[in-house]
Amino acid sequence: MKRFLVAAAMTLTALPALASDDDIIKVKSTSDVATTMDRLEAAVTGAGATVFARVDHAAGAASVDLALDPSQLLIFGNPKMGTAAMQDDPVAGLFLPLKVLVYQNAAGETWLAYHDPEDMFDDTTINDDAAYIKMMTGALGKLTAAAAGQ
C-alpha cells in the first residue's frame, strides 16, 4: 500500500509537467492589456454577443497587497451558440460562456489567450464537427485578431 501511495504521489506531481497547452490559442497584441481588453470588449458587443463580466486579476491581487502583472479576463457569450452546445450535452455549461484572458508576460508583451473550442468540449459527448464549434472558433479568431490590432 505504501508503494502505491508513493507511486501515486509521484505520478500526480509529474502531471503538470506532462500537460500540454496545445488547446490554448495565444494571439500577440500590439497594445497594452487595458487597451487590448477595451478593443476586445468593443468587438464582442459589436458582434452582438453579451459581456457577462470583465475580471481584473491584477486589481484583485492589489486589493490584498499582492503584485501581479496586468491580467484581465472577459467572460462573454452568444445564447444562440451556447444553448445549442448545452442542449447536446449539459456539461458544456462548465466551459461556457466563452472566456478570453488578456495578460502581460514577463517580457512585457501583451497576449490574448483562449481555449480552442475544438478541444474545449473533449470531455463531453459533443461531436467535434458540430456547427457551433466552427462558429465559436471563427468568432474567437476574429474577435481576438481585432483586439490584438491585426
TrEMBL record:
Record key words, sorted: Signal
Residue span, DUF302 domain: 55-117
Keyword Transmembrane recorded: no
Database matches in InterPro entries: DUF302, TT1751-like_sf
Signal peptide segment: 1-19
PANTHER family registered for this protein in UniProt: INNER MEMBRANE OR EXPORTED, SLR5037 PROTEIN
Full protein name: Camphor resistance protein CrcB
